[in-house]
Design brief:
The chain is built from three helices and eleven strands; from the N terminus they run E-E-E-E-E-H-E-E-E-H-H-E-E-E. It has 147 residues and is mostly beta strands. A seven-stranded mixed beta barrel has the order 1-6-5-9-8-7-11.
Length: 147
């Protein structure tokens, strides 16, 4: 079983802006991350982005990218998020269970993230999930696909 890890947990009180890394976050079933702008936001409760995707942007010269730069809640490493399908489930740490609800997204306008980072990879490489089982998530937590 392939297992990755959570590199960073990020939140912001506003939508369409870069998020700030935090020490931990509480995920609530059917709602999302407490204190985040997308809390209770339908099927896109939690956003995930692979740090490997961010590496591609770093290779293009954007070397000052911090966790949350693309508006992601959970930055992962070591798990192929792009191989996931809608309905796949991810176990994060020992408590949290997420269900993939959307792969990629359509951006209508260029947001603050695009202008700050020079591009936004979330529409192409980000995934979104619903919180099925809640709990606390911290950087370093394992993340794996549930069979």
């Amino acid at each position: 079983m392939v297992e990755g890890r959570i590199e960073a947990v990020c939140v912001s009180a506003e939508k369409h802006v870069q998020k700030e890394a935090v020490e931990s976050a509480v995920l609530v079933p059917g709602k999302g991350i407490e204190g985040d702008a997308h809390y209770g936001f339908g099927h896109r409760q939690v956003s995930l982005l692979a740090d490997e995707s961010v590496d591609k942007m770093r290779e293009k010269g954007l070397t000052d990218l911090k966790p949350g730069a693309f508006g992601e809640n959970l930055l992962t490493r070591g798990i192929d998020l792009l191989a996931l399908d809608i309905g796949d489930r991810l176990r994060v740490g020992s408590q949290v269970l997420l269900e993939v609800s959307q792969v990629g997204k359509e951006c209508v306008d260029r947001c603050a993230i695009y202008y700050a980072a020079g591009d936004c990879i979330m529409p192409r490489e980000g995934i979104f999930a619903r919180v099925i089982e809640g709990g606390v998530v911290t950087p370093g937590d394992a993340v794996r696909v549930e069979e």
